[in-house]
Design a protein that fits this description.
It is found in: Mitochondrion inner membrane. The protein is built from five helices and no strands.
Length: about 170
Amino acid sequence: MPEDHDWEAYKVPPTRTPVSERTTSVPNPVNYFQSAFNYVFDAPIAVVREWIEKLQSKNKFYYYHQQFRRVPDLSECLEGDYLCYYEAEAQWRRDRMVDQQIVEIVRERLAACKQREGPNQFQNCAKEMELLAQVTKAYQDRYGELGYHGNARTCLMKQKHRMMEERKAAQEN
């Protein structure tokens, strides 16, 4: 396209923005206030922010999710160590939430496979069905029948009773 346009052939539509015509020789005070604001507030803040961003760019910190240290299990806490009890309870709640999310992810994968495969879902999604069965059985073994108000102590007692039943069944056999 040539640089020198033929303005008669390609007429530019008129602009709708009116041209401001200054009718007074008195300067606009808004311009002075904007300049003062820029030099007093905006410029120093911009300088400090650029300096902080320069420091942060040197050592990048990638934050994906919070990682908690593993605390002792409730069975490892000393008697009367309430801080250990609290930490073990918090750790149990986090573990339960992670296990719930694992079950939900496997369930979503199975639903996606069923949606994708359609009528062939029983033969093509057998691995996902088996995995869901294993995950839900493990979740039920650990957290089943605890209810909404279940805690680490009742979960530990449930596991203890299940181990005692398994030992008794093994001795009988």
